[in-house]
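Consider the tokenized backbone below.
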């Protein structure tokens, strides 16, 4: 435990400012060879179609692949699985389990019946992990360990793709709608938005919305959102880095059905002999009314929003915002010298050295820790500059902030 606590000091803080606002392009969709031949539509009209979408029911198979350019599995192992929630003693705890979606490729089954009932099943070979929200209860079951996690759901818990009135921060993580909503939540002059043809996604005709930063210095090359031509539901979300290669996030349905799922999809019975762990929200609710929290509360499990460059911490005390739009940088002054990597445990030291680039300038000296989308400059005097921007942009911001 002592080694784990020591290792935790060397985690680089990642709190990225919100994704930039967008300018609405007026380029109509043109069908390419082999793609659906759909009526022309402008980006403005397509965004209005997304906003008007009121999909309440769906079921389907969902595939998400994430490549941050960071060996998150090795980092998690080195840090002893730091980051679990209040139910961290259970392998079924969603706050720990769903961090797996931040790296690698995963197949999920999703079902939703309005804001009261949702089910997500993460498939891993013959093993399954299920997260079920049914009215007042949230259940999670890990078939590999046979453990169960139970928590009372907040009163306003929403569903993935459950409609425009569902609170975005209460949706299950990683669905195309949740990701699309984050990107399209504001408007401004820092972004180009156009319609980039059509496509077939999960057997559905779809328009493709293409979003690109206009500003130099962002690590985001583009965001592409495939939108169901019939009902405006986002079906696929792709985030590309200026580094090229595999997408940072490629999340989309491979099968989808918008009919009402069976009620049995949202029922759960504790298997005989299973260990049941009660979550913090339920324990608090037993002591006082109005307790909130749990896997649908506050923010996406496992910091997914931050890892994807979505959902900022810029409103928190101690965080200052530099710049605007896609090149926004969050600055945090820790007030303490940065830890020396040569003092870190061996399993952490090599990882930090491989991830970090030593830099210096008028600001002093420090280390830039890199992923394909989020970079962070940790100065030797304890300042942190972080954003979905290039290394040079971070150094320039630190120099200007001297």
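A designed sequence for it:
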């Amino acid at each position: 435990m002592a080694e784990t606590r020591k290792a935790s000091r060397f985690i680089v803080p990642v709190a990225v400012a919100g994704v930039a606002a967008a300018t609405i392009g007026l380029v109509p969709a043109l069908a390419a060879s082999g793609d659906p031949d759909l009526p022309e539509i402008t980006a403005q009209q397509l965004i209005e179609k997304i906003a008007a979408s009121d999909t309440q029911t769906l079921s389907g198979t969902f595939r998400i692949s994430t490549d941050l350019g960071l060996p998150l599995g090795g980092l998690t192992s080195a840090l002893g699985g730091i980051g679990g929630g209040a139910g961290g003693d259970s392998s079924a705890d969603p706050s720990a389990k769903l961090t797996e979606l931040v790296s690698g490729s995963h197949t999920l089954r999703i079902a939703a019946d309005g804001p009261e009932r949702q089910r997500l099943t993460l498939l891993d070979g013959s093993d399954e992990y299920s997260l079920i929200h049914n009215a007042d209860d949230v259940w999670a079951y890990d078939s590999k360990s046979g453990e169960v996690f139970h928590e009372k759901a907040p009163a306003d818990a929403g569903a993935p793709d459950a409609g425009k009135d569902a609170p975005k921060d209460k949706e299950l993580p990683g669905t195309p709608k949740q990701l699309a909503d984050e990107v399209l939540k504001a408007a401004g002059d820092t972004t180009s938005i156009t319609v980039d043809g059509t496509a077939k996604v999960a057997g559905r005709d779809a328009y493709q919305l293409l979003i690109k930063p206009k500003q130099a210095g962002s690590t985001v090359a583009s965001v592409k959102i495939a939108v169901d031509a019939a009902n405006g539901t986002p079906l696929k979300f792709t985030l590309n880095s200026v580094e090229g290669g595999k997408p940072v996030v490629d999340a989309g349905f491979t099968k989808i059905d918008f009919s009402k799922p069976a009620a049995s999809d949202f029922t759960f019975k504790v298997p005989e002999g299973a260990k049941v762990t009660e979550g913090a929200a339920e324990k608090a609710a037993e002591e006082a009314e109005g307790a909130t929290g749990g896997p649908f509360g506050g923010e996406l499990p496992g910091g997914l929003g931050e890892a994807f460059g979505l959902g900022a911490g810029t409103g928190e005390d101690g965080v200052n915002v530099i710049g605007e739009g896609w090149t926004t940088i969050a600055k945090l002054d820790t007030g303490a010298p940065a830890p020396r990597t040569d003092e870190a445990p061996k399993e952490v030291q090599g990882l930090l050295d491989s991830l970090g680039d030593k830099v210096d300038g008028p600001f002093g000296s420090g280390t830039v820790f890199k992923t394909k989308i989020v970079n962070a400059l940790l100065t030797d005097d304890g300042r942190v500059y972080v954003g979905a921007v290039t290394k040079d942009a971070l150094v320039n911001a630190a120099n200007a902030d001297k």
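The first strand starts at residue 22 and ends at 24.
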